[in-house]
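Researcher: I need the complex structure. Ligand is pyridoxal-5'-phosphate. Inputs:
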Amino acid sequence: MARLEVPATIAMAQRARALRGRGEEVLSLALGEPDFPTPAGVIEAAHRAALDGQTKYPPVEGTPALKAAIIRKFARENGLTYEPSEIMVSNGGKQVIFNAFMATLNPGDEVIVPSPYWVSYPLIISLFGGVPVFVDCPEDTGFRLGAAALEAAITPRTKWLVLNFPNNPTGATTTRADLEAIAEVLRRHPQVHVLSDEIYEHLVYDGKTHVSIAQVAPDLKPRVLTLNGVSKAYAMTGWRVGYVGGPAWLIRAMGSIQGSSTSGICSISQAASVAALDGPPGVVEVMRETYDRRRRMVVAALRQIPQLTCAMPQGAFYVYPGIAACIGRTSAGGRRLNTDEDFAIALLEEQHVAVVHGSAFGKGPYIRLSYATSDDILRDACGRIARFVAGLT
Ligand SMILES: Cc1ncc(COP(=O)(O)O)c(C=O)c1O
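Model: Output:
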């Protein structure tokens, strides 16, 4: 347990909180949390559910009403057909990942994690004695996973491949052709299962549409877990509802784990999630358009800073600028920037802007900024980043 790290995203938020505790105003672009309120119709559904007496222990794997709404969602949006025995609701997408790896990993089993990656994957894999095997997704390919790099990383001990598109932290998306090439590799390695984390599915831009691997390669569906949740798309991070579709044998095993840990997920949150999934798509679209506008504003502002490089992300709500030209320099406050973590700490201490260093996601020297915050904060934060970089010597 002592070897388990605090995720860097949470560590940076804690630093920002400490600075705020000292009376400083801090602009936080560190956390991946929508700044929108949960849609009113969702909150009303929760209220009704509570008044209707939906306040008892729910079934471990999810209420029949939510499982039915999830089945409709997968059919409508992903062209995927699931039976109720192939669906499970968990305490956020994070518990889905925890259940899946606890159910399947033996010490020494390898899990391929394309890099950069969301910090929780390697932490959870390591918790169960698994070995994360990182595969580099280079910036010059749009941070996409190449089939040849995947093939080279697979060994007889590989049990899982994690796919996360749209991606946290880069905002990269994937294409049908990419997924077809990945599927072709996986067909040669029947021992490899796929955890496809599609939690940012609705947040794609520039006319892109999201594609699921189980849809592109239906023959692989029996070994794919398709993960999703209401946190990001519906601004429901605090309601703690994630869900997954996958083979019944694995869902059963994950249910056994959940039954002995948290049991079923908050009954009222589940009723709210039915309203979210069945609700009018316009609610998500308004948020998506706002993120899209902010994305273009932030990238344009960062591209004005000559020392930074900034790819245009096509999904999620993060930008991932490169800061190589700042490494080895000294900040106006006298801090030497040997790493991207030094950069993030100095930016926080000297300009009170919280971001997360890229090396925490497996790829430096970059920083990750979340634009799930107001236009004013984003404008102010980009100005401060520009001043910070201009002050480097
Ligand atoms: C890639 C990715 N997957 C899953 C999650 C988990 O979200 P939740 O547990 O709120 O459903 C997050 C949250 O930051 C994420 O970024």
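Model: Summary of the prediction. The chain has a mean pLDDT of 96.
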